[in-house]
Each structure stands twice: as C-alpha cells, then as structure tokens.
Amino acid sequence: MIFLRGFNSALGWSKVMTNRNTAEIVAKALDGFRIEVPSWGFANTGTRFGKFIQNGAATNIEEKFSDAAQVNLLTGASPTVALHVLWDLPGGLTDVPNIQKLEAQYGVKAGSINPNLFQDQDYKFGSIANPSSEIRARAIAHLLDSVAIGHALGTKDVSLWIADGSNYPGTQSISKRIGWMEEALAATHQALGEGQRMLVEYKPFEPAFYHTDIADWGMALELARRAGPKAKVLVDTGHHLQGTNIEQIVTWLLHVDGLGGFHFNDRKYSDDDLTLGSIDPYQLFRIFHEILSAPAQVTDAVAFMIDQSHNLKGKLEAMVQSVVTAQELFAKAALVDRARLAHLQDSCQLVEAEECFRDAFWQDVRPLVREWRASRGLPVEPLKALAESGYVEKISRDREARNRGSVASYA
Ligand code: RM4
Ligand code: MN
Ligand code: MN
Q: N or C end of the chain: which has fewer CB within 10 A?
C-alpha cells in the first residue's frame, strides 16, 4: 500500500514534468532574464592574505569589456557590466568617452556605477560618516561625480556600498554618523537625473568589526526613504549573518516598494563572493520564487547583478558558471505552480505545499535550457563552448606579461 501511494505520486510528478507548457514557461522566463556582470570579477583580486595572479586576468578596462562581452555571447544574458569608478574610470568624467568607445567596440554596455568610498587613506575613520566635515565633503563630491558619470553614460543605477563603521564600542557616535549619512545621501539623491536611481547596499560587518553604519536592510531602507523616491535598497546575498532568511527580507522590500536590486553571490561563512549556487542553490531558488510571486510592475525594475571575485577559479569560467546557474535557477523558480501552491498554502496542506515547491526545484531544467539556447542561436553548452573557443588561452598569452608585473600584495 505504501509502495503504491509512492508510485502514484511519482506518476503525478512526471505528469507535471511532461506538461507541454513547461518548455514555454522556461523559454519565456529566460527571454526576459538579464544579469549584470562586475568588471572586478575579471581582474586579479584576492583575500587580505594575498593575491594569486592569473595570466588571463583583465589588467585594464578594455580587457574587462572584452571578457564581459564573451560571457554575454556565451550566455545571452549579460549585456551590461558594472563599473567601479576608482578602478575603471580613475579619470572620472574624462574617462566617459573611452567607456562609450568600448561599449560600441564590444557590444556590451556600462551598467551600474559603483563609487569607491573605502580605499583612500582619508577614509580611515569613514567616508560620508566621517567626523571630519572636509572628508565628508570629499566623499560627497565623489558620489556626485559618480552620479554625473552615470548620467553621461545613460546608465540607471548608482550603487552605493558604504564601508564606514568603527571597531570598538564608544569610539564613535553612532547617532551623529546617522545624521551625516542622511545629509550625504540627500545630496546624492538631489543630483540624480531623469531615469537615474541610487541603490543603498548594507553589510553587517567587515571592514568594520564593532558597528557598521549601514548594517542591515532596515537601516538601508530608512536611509533610502529619507533620501527620496529614487533611492532603493540593494541586497547583496553575501551580506547577512548566518541563518538570515534573505527571501523574507526580499519579500518585505518588494511589499514596500523598496527593492532596487541584488548583488548575487554565494557564501559558506561570510562575504565569500563565491559563484552563484555553489553552496546553496535552494536559497537562490527561494529568492527567485519571491520575485516571481510579486507583480511584474514591481519586479521589472529590480536589477540583477553578480558581485563576485574569483580568487582560485578561472575568471571567465567562474562568471559563465554563475550566469548559467542563475538562468537555471530562475527557470526552475518559473516552474513553481503558483496557483496550486497558493491553494495548498491557504488550506494549510503543509506537506503537499512543500512538495509542490520542491518539485520545481528538483526538476532538471537543463535539457529545456539547452533547447532554449539552441532556439536563440546561443551555444548549447556555454562552458564547453568557452573551452573550445580558445579565448582563455589567447588572453592568457596576451596578458601574461602585464599580469606578471602585478604585485601579489594585500588585497
Ligand atoms: C563589497 C561590496 C560592494 C563591492 C565591493 C567590491 O564587499 O559587496 O558591493 O563593490 O565589495
Ligand atoms: Mn556587493
Ligand atoms: Mn561584498
């Protein structure tokens, strides 16, 4: 009897699998799926203990565009590349024409603009929350430059990660620093042009180890709201304490129209910046499910971005892996039978509801994703196509000498 029940439910499951709509659902989901790649994911990065140099790592902005273009050609899903102002546009606005030239040359566009308020010696005790009004003014000037760069490039998002904080109790006034941040974010918001937004990222610790000025989504949301309607929250999946229910945060942010976008990465311990889904693919599936459960007019404006640095894996391979994983998990989440799930939830059929949810997660969507790739003229196996293209070998040869010159210093 027990065996027969199991058998019947297995039959029910395979009926879902062969549903002729499944391929259409997957194709529709993938046609609309875009995820931005970070320029810094192609460069040599490391840990605070050192850098391991890769011969093929990008050594300048042109090489980063070239690599991002490869990822887009292979996956069809990443037509934009996030730029870090200090690393990619050290000349500020004067570098904009060069970026525009690279956009035309490589067929991928500049995406979010990331100000850098964490590297300069001046920012030892903070940037926009520094007790020194001169240093705060300098930080605000950099934010305004970043807005001007985004405006000149016609990009939508200026993405703020504020590393400010303190290491020991009593050493800084947390409350004064809130006021200083409010001033800086209001000034930044005021400078935003038509079609521009600012995204406020949060992180519980690191580099600060006692208090971080924007430590969680509540602080980020409140600061964004006070700044103005074009300010939204950016959720970096690696920026939470262990066990945090990220999909619940996402749902709340969607509910209050406060979600601007994501920095996707995976982690085992902290801000590990590992490739998507490498540790916990179920979590990303759960996040995508919440996105797909919300009305399209709310989620259309949510920016999907990858924020990773690949320390040991090949840069290109890791980025392709991440984009492909994102596509697969998004396709799985699209297959959740949301009408049936709602009914099961409302009638508190807990096991049936959970199994309905898990059925979608456990479906092997890879054949359907391959089918979609073929039908869109994309390589059926992006990683294999990358290996066969010889691109990585070529860039490793071309860039080897330049990379040999780079120092294996502290990150
Ligand atoms: C930070 C944060 C920012 C990213 C930098 C490189 O941890 O996640 O978003 O721009 O790293
Ligand atoms: Mn981030
Ligand atoms: Mn991070």
A: N
Cα-to-centroid distance, 238 and ligand 3 (Å):
6
- Residue 271 CB less than 6 A away from ligand 1: yes
Q: Specify the pTM.
A: 0.95
Is the beta carbon of 114 within 6 A of some atom in ligand 1? Answer: yes
Q: What angle do CA 133, 125, 216 make, to 5 degrees?
A: 100
**CA distances in angstroms from 183 to 120, 190, 204, listed in the order given:** 21, 11, 22
Longest dimension (CA), the chain: 77
Helix axes 350-362, 315-334, angle to 10 degrees: 140
From first to last of the 411 residues of the chain, give the pLDDT tens digit: 444 443 444 444 444 445 669 999 999 999 999 999 999 999 998 888 888 899 999 999 999 999 999 999 999 999 999 999 999 999 999 999 999 999 999 999 999 999 999 999 999 999 999 999 999 999 999 999 999 999 999 999 999 999 999 999 999 999 999 999 999 999 999 999 999 999 999 999 999 999 999 999 999 999 999 999 999 999 999 999 999 999 999 999 999 999 999 999 999 999 999 999 999 999 999 999 999 999 998 899 999 999 999 889 999 999 999 999 999 999 999 999 999 999 999 999 999 999 999 999 999 999 999 999 999 999 999 999 999 999 999 999 999 999 987 765 443
Ligand 1: distance of its center to the CA of 102 in Å? 24
Q: Is the CB of 161 under 6 A from ligand 1?
A: yes
